[in-house]
Amino acid sequence: MSPPLLKVTKANKVFHVGSATVHAVTDISLTVNKGETVAVVGESGSGKTTLANLILGIEIPTSGEVELAGEQLKGRRSKTVRRKIGLVQQNPYSTLNPRKSIGQAIGLPLDVHGIGSRAERRRRIGELLEKVGLNAGHRDRRPLALSGGQRQRVAIARALTTNPDLLVLDEPTSSLDVSVQAHILRLLRDLQQEFDLAYLFITHDLGVVRVIASRVVVMYRGRVVEEGSVAAIFRSPRHRYTQLLLASIPTVSEEDDAFKPDWPWDADVKGDGDPAEGCPFRSRCPFAVERCGQEFPDMRGSGDHRYACFNPRPETSEAIVNLQAEKLERKKA
Amino acid sequence: MSQSSARWRGWRRFARNKLSVLGAVLIAIVFFCAIFAPYVAPYPEHAGVVVNFLDANQPPSAKYWLGTDTVGRDVLSRIIFGFRNSLMLGAVVIAISITIGTAIGMAAAYLGGKTELVLMRITDIFLAIPSLVLAMAILGLAKPSQLYAMIAMATVWWPWHARLVYGIVRSLKYEGFVVAAEVVGASPLRVMFSELLPNCAPNLFTKASLDMGFVILLGASLSFLGMGAPPPTPDLGTMVSEGAQYLPDIWWLSVMAGMGIFIVVLGFNLVADGLRDLFDIVG
Lengths: 333, 283
Fold this sequence. Notes:
The complex is a heterodimer of chains A (333) and B (283). Chain A has 333 residues and is α/β, with parallel strands linked by helices. Chain A has helices at 48-56, 79-84, 102-113, 118-131, 148-160, 178-195, 206-212, 230-235, 240-247, 254-258, 318-332; strands at 6-17, 20-32, 37-41, 63-68, 71-72, 85-88, 166-170, 198-203, 215-220, 223-229, 300-302, 305-307. Chain A is built from eleven helices and twelve strands. The N and C termini of chain A lie far apart (53 Å). Chain B is an all-alpha fold. Chain B has a single domain (2-279), classed as Orthogonal Bundle (MetI-like fold). In chain B, 74% of the residues lie in helices and 0% in strands. Chain B has helices at residues 2-15, 18-35, 37-40, 75-111, 113-128, 131-140, 146-172, 176-184, 188-224, 236-244, 252-279. Chain B starts with a helix and ends with a helix. Chains A and B meet through helix 3 of A and helix 8 and helix 9 of B. Chain A: Residues 6-246 form the ABC transporter domain.
């Protein structure tokens, strides 16, 4: 079997801020295969962006490995490697240089890598603009003249310039209007099919995950607490933090509501705040057992769905799914 | 369409402030006089060594609009040639200090770490010494000439530009577009000069216009102290200084040359205000 496109193994990143040390990311392992979308979810400060930075080579891991298509990435990245990974950032208002035209922004990777003649670059820029639903006429515009959604399309076009295999999408839709979000997500899905792209999709919006991702990695305080297929995790979250996350999705209809796990407890941090040892979630977890304070649990579960919890939520059985459906029927009646 | 209409909008915004239009007019006149000095000045030969004791110490009259000096040279002609000198001095000093200041401020802010520490402490040391004193100290090492005056003034002036660029780049270096360029593999030089520098340009233009006035003033101060261009070069600062000994009887020497300095400095300051509105710079 060929190696996965992206493989992160036991990556750690420790920052020293003055005299304090911050473990931004602890023992993170994940894989992304060609053409698939892996969503990384977690609240702010959970290490999602640090993980992205390690993959992009903006930060160097304190320990652990990052491999791209079987090749270990160490030290300075070669241009060939840089071409294979594209980035789409969160804030469409800062992602484009206000002093440069759209064409210059999209052409930057071509300039840097010395690809193509002037005419070829011009053609490629026009072609990319069409691919992301803009047109060649946008080439000479300034970012100031574009809406947030259009800027994000330009950012996607720029990420695609070098024909990458992997796009790191760092909350690409979270600062857009909901109606625009849907367009961008559809565009991303179309582009994925057309170019056989793999996405590492960082987000805190589980609604978006469900639409776009095939697998989910749930992070909490720099650790992976649960990972699995979207279907498995949405149907039957095992880690208590995932349970809390799913329970907090706002829903429109009672129909949706009936299928959400419950979380009637207070979810605020209590006690000693941020524990150094053991499971970082235990100060918020009503199910914490003694062992949770002593060590961080190893990942357990099967290949398709793994979680790190000593006292996991019981698996959602067919019976419960049926029960929920019944409950819903009764409410309707 | 977008290009020309943007330019028009820019001019409208600049012109909203009537004073900055006045400044632009003043500067335009000064520049015109400076460039075409030999044609504009009523007695162009008076810019050099001319002695005409018959007409010495004449008050302003129809023949000599702004009077004559102690050796009978036309003050107006000398002021017009003095503009030439002042503008040249200002332009050269600002060009040098923007180049040095931008390079140092940019490198310090973008590269960070030890580079930042060393470069910015050096900048601070220069800023801590009063500019006139430092310029005089430097000029004390050389004989007075226009060239040395320019070098001395550029030496005291670049730290301001370094500070300005440093501040801007520090606030921009974590912006998305900078990170995006780095991720693609752009070299530090490309990021600094192609991505960051264009974002410093509006502030640099405004500062240059504001500084033009101050540099000319500093140049005049140095000349006043006898450290500028040596005679017979017409220099506004030297003229004020020489005229000062004959105050108040032959008042027009100092006052007229002083007015010349005043007009140039005022013009550049007013234009700087307009540029600030134009580029929407806060502060």
